[in-house]
Request: fold
Amino acid sequence: MKKLLYILPALAFSVAALYFFAVPDVSFLVKENPLKTSLMRFREAEWKAKGREKDVYQTWVPYSRISPYLVKATLISEDDKFWSHEGFDYDAIQRAIEKDIKAGKFKAGGSTISQQLAKNLFLTPEKSAFRKFREALITWKIERTLSKKRILELYLNVAEWGDGVYGAEAASRHYFGKSASGLTAMEAARLSVVLPSPRRLNASGDQKYVNSRAEIIYDIMVKRGIVVPEFEEVEAETKAEAAKGPGASGIIAGGPLEGSAAWPQKDEAAAPAGTPLKEPASRDEPRPADFGKQ
Reply:
């Protein structure tokens, strides 16, 4: 009994010391923007070791100056339960564990946007059980300190979007030559596709994976009514053609325009809400976000 009285305080002290060591203070993030993340410093060390003279390209912008299309596309692509979970998607974690067991090695995965933010801000890309443990503790702290909107604003400003490219504004200008506020729905979809493998994928290139997956994400946005302007344009144009009479331009009166957002898509490009998409090599693939919960 006496031994237990000594062991319990020692255990409590050890846990407190571990928490203090593993979990940095995140309260400053409520009002302050981080100057440089742990991931950025890690990349700079890599460049220096390889003798590369390269700088981090990042421009901070507030949430209000980021295209709503990019916000929606990122949620579809990266974290379908963002607005409802408390930092962890347990279904995704279970799938990741099952894949790790099947593969016979620790590959991680199942990360939410909050977990990715914790890793980007304070940790490194190292894949280890201890790093995932620290990531979980920091994620827990972030979710209890910051609002969901602030978490999204931080993530969209520090996420890696290419070799040396960080944040939505830098990515938008790098790939499309425009501000993040002016992104179209398809450009946003293409940028969201790059997030799992930002140094391998090119949002403005012609990679088959980027093209096909961006079409799927765009189609989900259309089906959920997120890409409303396109629907309005199609409806107005269709009515105008119908008023001219059948055959005026080769379009059936009252029908959608071929190639438009309303035109029926191929089965493989139209994933219904709630249908999991094909898993990527680096991390769990996105599932459609539940936008009704926003």
In short: The longest strand covers residues 160-162. Residues 247-294 have pLDDT under 50 and may be disordered. The chain has eleven helices and three strands.
